[in-house]
Amino acid sequence: MQHMWNFAQLTDLIHGWLYETFPPAWALAFEMIIVGIAVIGLFAGLGLVLVLMERKVSAFMQIRLGPNRVGPKGLMQSLADTLKLLVKEGMTPDGVDRFLFNLAPFIAMIAAMLLMAPIAFAKDFQIWDLNIGVLYVTAISSLNVIAILMAGWSSNNKYSLLGAMRSGAQIVSYELSAGLSILTVVVLTGSLQISDIVTAQSNGWWIFKGHIPVLIAFVIYMIAVTAETNRAPFDMAEAESELTGGFHTEYSGMKFALFFLAEYINVFIVCAIGATLFLGGWMPLHIGEWTAFNGIMDWIPSSVWFFGKTFFLIFLMMWFRWTFPRLRIDQLLNLEWRYLLPIGMVNILLVTVIAILKWHF
Amino acid sequence: MKGETIVFYLLAALTLVSAAMAVGTRRIFRSAVYLLSSLIGIAGLYFWMRFEFAAAVQIVVYAGGIAVLIIFSVFLTQRAGDDMPTPPMLRTIAAAGAALLGMGLVMLQLVAHPFPTPAVAEVDRSVSAIGRRMLATGDDGFALPFEVVSLLLLAAMIGCIVIAMRAKPNQP
Amino acid sequence: MMEPGLYHMLFIGAALFFIGIYGFLTRRNLITMLMSLELILNSVCLNFIAFNRYVWTDRATGPSMSAVPRI
Fold this sequence. Notes:
The complex is a heterotrimer of chains A (about 350), B (about 170) and C (about 70). Chain A is about 70% helix and about 0% strand.
């Protein structure tokens, strides 16, 4: 079935033209520059969209209008906010470790950028399809905690330090649950590569094919990544009412904006990975042998599928935020170590049995 | 000079310079951060040699585990903001001399020793191949070390639980 | 000599090892000594992987062996 928008043709065209015109080393360098610009552009676009979406969704949940003054229906609000953050003075308080204080936001940002590499945005449209795909994602996302700890410590502020410590404990423990639920899909697919995982779902998404255990894994994954990205109800790291702002209390201007942006990009990335693993990535909704139905679904471009699923999951995380009250730190750790981790471990055993006996569809 | 070569020298410089700074700096938190960047440089070298799995494991274990562990123990036990005292001059000189001497000896041996040329057959280094080798019992298998390591991990886990378990207060 | 190969990797491994030794001898603090030890362990892993990449390419002993000290 021919897709309407085929990105592979476009990328092949650019690739071929560059290699014909320039020597290979230069062509590679140009490709890197193009990819870098594309990723930065995607970053900026996603940041604007997600911040606006967050405010609109929260307004909807609380039966108010949300931003509605700048532009039609307030659509330009986040652009105006960005402009404000850009021209604000970036202050560095006394007594901070200047080097680490200035480095921390960039580490958060670089980690978020590296995570973009293995994500398949559409059919045949992926920056780097490396053979350890999801393992790479879990590896790089653990760099985030370092950025938070650096920011919290170097600020020379007890609220920042407390926020960083809480966040460290939280991220390190919830990483386990997220890893276990990622593993369930890896066990079913038999590969870590993102393209293999997506291809394996061509006759149905894992959340439908894998029976109850994959559904449980999906729920655990969503809870764990909500905690990993420090979002409410797990926003112990920031906890405005307790810690004034957590690890980024002392940050202002551009450096604060970088932290803020990295947080939203991380939300996008974990949702994109969730959509890839459980909801089939760019794969359209196919149901078994219904050729007519599958044909109609194939006419929707694969990038629309991918972004649709990802934004649905992001909406889910924003919904959590306005539904559940913030947990206490001991409740948070109890939830992970007493409930999610044991359930996840039993679950992965079940999935292994299913995969060996080939009970999945 | 190829692009690959430049990348190699950059990674090597990152690894060695940050390792030297990690042992040289007097601020303990910075030392931990430099150590982490050195270890990430090593992960980059693994990526450069196309051992993706080893590189990813390196980042998971060191960035996600050991660096966080070290930073937490710095937070909890040290006064992290203070500078550490400089070691006495004599010890610094002696340690540097010992390290340089050892390095010189090793390099002499290394340059003199001819290594065999690589075998032609390239083995499958994918994750599933490594996994099979980990549980194989034959000539190329690692079942015994794997089991020994899992026993060690079990012992460490039990030790953690014993330490973390609080003695129950005698309630009336 | 400019093209990176086995000797370059072994040089990095040896240099890391002796930087670790230097740190281990000069520091008088348990945590910093542990950090130096990490450098030493990592130099060993690097050597395993380098030998596997450049000499005994027909075996996958390197990654397996380097996974063991890591744990």
